[in-house]
Amino acid sequence: MIEILVLHGPNLNLLGWREPEIYGKMTLTEIDQMLVEEGKKLGLDVRSRQSNSEGILIDILQEAATWAAGVIFNPGGYTHTSIALRDTISAIAIPVIEVHLSNVYAREEFRHHSTISAVCAGKIVGFGWRSYWLALQALAGRLQDAPKTR
Ligand code: DQA
Predict the structure, then answer these.
(1) 80/88 Cα distance (integer angstroms)
(2) Could you tell which of 79, 80, 85, 115 is best to mutate to test the pocket of ligand 1, judged by most ligand atoms within 8 Å of the CB?
(3) Ligand 1 and 86: CB distance under 6 A
(4) Tens-digit pLDDT profile for residues 40-58
(5) Catalytic residue positions, numbered
(6) Predicted confidence band at 148 (pLDDT cuts at 50, 70, 90)?
(7) Could you tell me the maximum CA-CA distance found in the chain, to the nearest angstrom?
(8) Does domain 2-145 have CATH number 3.40.50.9100?
(9) What would the DSSP string read from start to end of 73-140?
(10) Ligand 1 contact, 24 CB (< 6 A)
């Protein structure tokens, strides 16, 4: 089975009751379960992690390069500020797909810029929990086309 990391950044552990009108009512556990089930259908072994700490997210990404074929990553607020996360994604030779639940382009201007988009394989925004679902389909397809990207 091809192994995939789903990585969630700060405050995403609060999903379900954090501004549900923006982020939806699904909890992070429910999203992770959905991805595990969908992954099985696609022949992917999906493992999920969440951290509120930039350094821990970096450690997890560096380690993922040793076992994962690809990463689905929602960096939360670090999307708009973190050069360090960008450098990590740039350094690891596995595809990373950037994901956002909300349509960041329809929100405050500071959310329009992402430090990581240019070093990601692609990006999906604005579809709520389905952004993750779509990212999984995209990553599965990409890995089928080019399974040996690292
Ligand atoms: C988010 C968008 C970010 O701007 C915000 O800081 C988040 C969540 C999203 O999934 O829509 O924490 O990444």
Answers:
(1) 15
(2) 79
(3) no
(4) 999 999 999 999 999 999 9
(5) 23, 100
(6) low
(7) 41
(8) yes
(9) EE-GGGGGT-HHHHHHHHHS-S-EEEEESS-GGGS-GGGS--SSGGGSSEEEESSTHHHHHHHHHHHH
(10) no
Sign of CA dihedral 35, 36, 42, 47: positive
Rounded to the nearest whole angstrom, what is the distance from the C-alpha of residue 61 to the centroid of ligand 1? Answer: 19
Flag whether pLDDT at 69 surpasses 50.
yes
Q: What is the pLDDT of residues 71-102, one digit of tens each?
A: 999 999 999 999 999 999 999 989 999 999 99
Answer for the pair 74, 12: CB distance below 8 angstroms, yes or no. Answer: yes
pLDDT value at 147 more than 90: no
